[in-house]
Amino acid sequence: MTDIKIPLRDMRFAMRELLDWDKHYESLGYEDATPDLVDAILEEGAKFCENVLAPLNAVGDQQGCTWNDGEVTTPEGFKEAYQQFVEAGWPSLAHDPAHGGQGLPPSLGTVMSEMVGTANWSWGMYPGLSHGAMNTLEAHGTDEQKETYLTKLVEGSWTGTMCLTEPHCGTDLGILRTKAEPNADGSYAITGTKIFISAGEHDMAENIVHIVLARLPDAPAGTKGISLFIVPKFLPNADGSAGERNGVVCGSLEHKMGIHGNATAVLNFDGAKGFLIGPPNKGLNCMFTFMNTARLGTALQGLAHAEAGFQKSLAYAKDRLQMRSLSGPKNPEGPADPIIVHPDVRRMLLTQKAFAEGGRMLILLCAQQVDRLQKGSEEDKKDADDLLAFLTPIAKAFLTETGLESANLGMQCFGGHGYIAEWGMEQNVRDARISTIYEGTTGVQALDLLGRKVLMSQGELLRKFTKVMHKFCQAEIDNEALAPFVTKLQELNKQWGDLTLHVGGKAMENPEEVGAASVDYLMFSGYAVQGYLWARAAKIANDKLAAGTGEADFYRAKLATARFYFDRILPRTASHAAAMLSGAANLMELDAEHFAF
Length: 597
What we know:
InterPro entries: Acyl-CoA_dh-like_C_dom, Acyl-CoA_Oxase/DH_mid-dom, Acyl-CoA_Oxase/DH_mid-dom_sf, AcylCo_DH-like_C, AcylCo_DH/oxidase_C, AcylCoA_DH/ox_N, AcylCoA_DH/ox_N_sf, AcylCoA_DH/oxidase_NM_dom_sf. The chain is α+β, with helices and mostly antiparallel strands.
C-alpha cells in the first residue's frame, strides 16, 4: 500500500497565500500563533500522522473493534497511538487555557484534524467527537461542569460522544423517547436506547462523557421538549478521577460497511445518572453547538478521502504500465507506457486533485470564520456567523459527495487491483460512504441551505457571499490572464441569484418545490463556491509566476488545475440548473403505490 504523505505545501498555500492566516492571527490577537510555531505544529503533526496513524489504517479495517459483555477493545495499536497523541498535547491545542488548553486558534485544530483524518479516519473519530463535547460544554456548561468534565476532555484523558439517534428516529429528533426523571440530588435518571454512537465505547481513554438528548417528564411534544444532559460512563469522584460505573452500557456494536476501526455503539441507558446542560427543554438549541462542529468535521472527511485516494492513485498511475499512448510511446524502453499518459486516467486524477485542493480551501475558509467568532469584534462575529451559517451545509454535503466521487475515481484508476484489499482503495471507498449520511444527509443539508439559510433569510446570507464573488470579479475585470475565470464567475454569480428567485417564487405556490430543487441547488452552490476559490488560487499562481519564483512547477500545477476545474468540472452547474428549473411535478406525479408493480 502506498504511504500517505501530508500535503504540507498545499496546506501552506491555502493557509498563508490564499487566506493570509499570518495576518489573520495577528489581527485577532493570537500572539502565540507565530509563523514559526505554526510551521513546527504542521511538521510535528505530519510526522505523527504519517509514522503512527497511517500504518494503523489497514489494521483498523482488518481487525475492527471487538465487543465482549459490554466492553469494547479497539484494534491493535489504537490505544497506544492515542496515548502518544495525548502525551504530545494534541487534544488541548485549540482550547481555553483556563481549562488546560494551549489557547491556539481553532483553525489550527482544523488543520491537525485534516492530517489525522487523511492518515486514519476511523482512529481520528475518537478524539474528533471530543471536540464537539468540549465546544458544547464551553458554550452551555456551568462552571462546575467545566471544571469536572471540560478539563479532562481538553487534557485528553477522557473522550466525548454525542447521543442523538434512537432506533425509531434519526433526523426527526422531535419523536425521540429517551426520558430523564429528576433525582432528589438534582441529577436525572436517564433511560432509553441510542444507536449509531460513534466512539460510544472503547478502551482508549479513562472515561467517556456522553452528551445525551432526552425528555423531562413535563416536556412539551416535539423538538420544543428536548433537554441536553451529560452522562459519564464513570461518575467522577470528588478529586476529579473516574469513579463508580454509571448505568450506561454498550449493548452491541453495529456491523457496518466501513470505518471498522471505530466503535459504532448501541448504548443502553438504564437509569444512568445525568446532569442537565443549559436550560430545560432547550437541548436541541444547545446540541447545535455540537452538531455544527460535527458537520464541519464530516466535511473534513470528504476532503480526507479525496486526498488519500488521489495520493495513492497518482503513485500507482506513474508506475503501472498498460498500453501505449495514442500519440506515440512515452516509455519506449519498456513493454508499455505508464497509465498516467492516458487522457482518461488524467481526467480521474485531476478531478481528485481539484476536489482535494478545492475542498481544503473551503474547509480552511470555514475554519477562519470560527476564529473570528471566537475573538473578533461584535461586527466581525456577526459577519463570520452569517458566512459560516451559509457555508456549513455546503461544506458538509458538497465535500462529502465529491469526496466519495474522488474515492471511487481513485479506486477506478487501479482497475481490478483497486477492488481487492491489498492496495487500500476499496477501504477508502467504504470508509467514505458514511460521510454523505451522518450528521445530516445530503438531502437534509440541502433543505437547510435552501429553505432555512437562503429563503428564510430573504436571500441575505446568499447575497453576502455573492457580493464577495462580485467584488473579486470587479477587481480582476481587466486582468487578461484571469479573463477565462472572471467571465465564467460573473455569469455563474448572476445565474445563482436568478435560480434562487425562480425557486423561491415557485415555492410560494407549492412548498414541495423547495425539496425538489434543494440537492441540485446545494451542488450548484458547492461548484460555484469552489469556482470562486479556484479563481483566487489562479490569481495567486499567475502573480507568482509573473514575478518570478523558485517554485514555478507548483504554481503552474495550480494554474493547470484551476483551468481543468473551470473547463471540465464547473460545467456540471448547467445540469443542476436544468434539473432545478424542471420543477417538482416530475417527482410528485407518480403515486407511491405505483412505483412498482
